[in-house]
Amino acid sequence: MAVLELRRAGLTGRLQPLDLTIDHGERTVLLGRSGAGKSSLIGLCNGSLSPDQGRVLWRGHDLQRCRPAQRRQIGTLWQDLRLVEELTVLQNINTGALGRHSLLWGLRNLLQPLEPELGDAILRQVGLSNTLRNHRVAGLSGGERQRVALARLLRQQPTLVLADEPLSALDPRLANDVLNLLLEQPSCMVSLHRPDLMQRFERVLGLRQGELVLDASPSAITEATLAWLYSED
Q1: pLDDT higher than 90, residue 68
Q2: For the chain, which residues make up each domain, given as ranges?
């Protein structure tokens, strides 16, 4: 069943019009050189960017017109993480649940972080100690910050996860742990600079100079295809 559809959706100067359907349960990897349009495609898929042409549909409805409760079903792990530096780890994690709660709940979370037991359980999921619960994000290492952002995403409980280069700042062991968690989500599309990991996914999308040029299973992709996808010409 399709959850997300792009119908001739494009962004002038960044992404040529393309047709794409993401089905529930799919694990998709997005490959391509830096500047190929991967982040732009993720922005279209989560609604943070509006297409200059065409349409993006979430469960058959125009994504730009969807209610907040509908858009909450799409979760994004941003390349720049977008954590709130001045807040604690638990407060940042709880921001993932804002779409399910009232404004009053959000204000209370700023004064006193809520539901610490649930926060601790999610911290364990991403391999962090609950001793970090009350630490400010500004004082964390890069790897810890990456996992806090992932914990916030898990707190959101999205139907579709979009991740923009989530492994770039991680050591191999931690990268594997993060990838495992992403692949456990109901559906995911993950942008990577790691073609060697494509066998972990069911579907490979390739972007080249803003054009979707590849949509295949990992087993159908040859070394020659990858060399062309990452070539400068």
Answers
A1: no
A2: 83-157
